[in-house]
Amino acid sequence: xxxxxxxxxxxxxxxxxxxxxxxxxxxxxxxxxxxxxxxxxxxxxxxxxxxxxxxxxxxxxxxxxxxxxxxxxxxxxxxxxxxxxxxxxxxxxxxxxxxxxxxxxxxxxxxxxxxxxxxxxxxxxxxxxxxxxxxxxxxxxxxxxxxxxxxxxxxxxxxxxxxxxxxxxxxxxxxxxxxxxxxxxxxxxxxxxxxxxxxxxxxxxxxxxxxxxxx
Amino acid sequence: xxxxxxxxxxxxxxxxxxxxxxxxxxxxxxxxxxxxxxxxxxxxxxxxxxxxxxxxxxxxxxxxxxxxxxxxxxxxxxxxxxxxxxxxxxxxxxxxxxxxxxxxxxxxxxxxxxxxxxxxxxxxxxxxxxxxxxxxxxxxxxxxxxxxxxxxxxxxxxxxxxxxxxxxxxxxxxxxxxxxxxxxxxxxxxxxxxxxxxxxxxxxxxxxxxxxxxxxxxxxxxxxxxxxxxxxxxx
Lengths: 215, 235
Ligand SMILES: [Zn+2]
Description:
The complex is a heterodimer. By secondary structure, chain A is mainly alpha-helical. Chain A folds into two domains: 1-48, no CATH class; 53-214, no CATH class. Chain A has helices at residues 53-73, 90-99, 103-132, 139-152, 158-169, 183-200, 204-214; strands spanning 18-20, 27-29, 77-81, 84-88, 176-180. In chain A, the strands form two sheets. Chain A has a three-stranded antiparallel beta sheet. A two-stranded antiparallel ribbon of chain A has the order 1-2. In chain A, strand 1 and strand 2 (27-29) form a beta hairpin. The longest helix of chain A is centred in the middle third of the chain and has 30 residues, at 103-132. Chain A is elongated. Chain B is mainly alpha-helical. Chain B is built from seven helices and seven strands, in the order ββββαββααααβαα. A three-stranded antiparallel beta sheet of chain B has the order 6-5-7. In chain B, strands 1-2 form a two-stranded antiparallel ribbon. In chain B, strands 3-4 form a two-stranded antiparallel sheet. In chain B, strand 1 and strand 2 form a beta hairpin. At the A-B interface, strand 1, strand 2, helix 3, helix 4 and helix 5 of A face strand 1, strand 5, strand 6, helix 2 and helix 3 of B. Residues 17, 19-20, 22, 37, 39-40, 42 of chain B line the site of zinc ion.
């Protein structure tokens, strides 16, 4: 199989018999650390690739998908105004904001609570499957996708923070109170699980297929 | 194999791309230069001019704003003569009251405890390095600080506060407190500190200091651009 010829010619650290430390990024020759596999500078364990990256990422992705179901079914908070309770799930919260004409707000919550986590899980699954199928296509674009994941993943936490702020602030007895719902627990768990999932994935696996073929 | 000309002894200036594992030889970078990976486009390294000084200054400022943000109410709510205030800490503890202790702990850790540990860790490492000394336990403390970095979520929290203000506007009068301005300032200096933080430079500085070659620290006149050992012709 020919890889398009204008591709940059590089050699991977692994091909050169070296590995870079995950923590301090020192490049060490694998030969020199044969006894203990510990970084000579910061004493962290050195692996050429993240250990069990694919299976760990899959496990975390599946966990996040399962947790996302109760996160959406249970209310994340209940607003009680003048004795009248009104439980809100993530989606009904967004709907409510749209109906009250708060478009920019609806958009922020929609992007942070639905687009980011769902998008993140879909992208991770796509990356996992292309790596497992030893795909040659668009390695640079897939790496960029991964970079975007790492950059925006934690913004989904905004909904969890929002609930904590509203609960602390709106405690006005009969006039209005906001109580958190168990949905926020599941949603927080989804966000944290996806953060660990994207951390578990090793983008260098995308390039290993190409490096292997270069011989 | 091409590793014949790669001497492990001089591997200190080698750098492997984080995202695609391409290997580069990277001498010092000028000013605000950015070295990008030729293959995948990720940032390999940034220029190192004044990185330690800048990070140190922003971190000190962050600690001041952090203290104010925690000491004063972030927001107040005024409705029918009643007033309700909320501080950074009460956001976390309020959840604990409703059997959601786990969520309260996560909020506490990501908005108060981890940001504080990150600031202390950076100051502990950077102040001695700045004065030409490697602090005790530099390696474990700096490693720990780096590992915590992604878990400090001041920026996301600030967005949450802004959303809350708009959301509550139709329910009651929202009164911004001193804590809110401090929180916003904290966000700005945190972003600046993160942007100037250059772990590569910090590791190198500690390497140089502990090997006793202090003079070479200030001998940064080399203007080489990143040269690539990965080009086939150099092998
Ligand atoms: Zn790269």
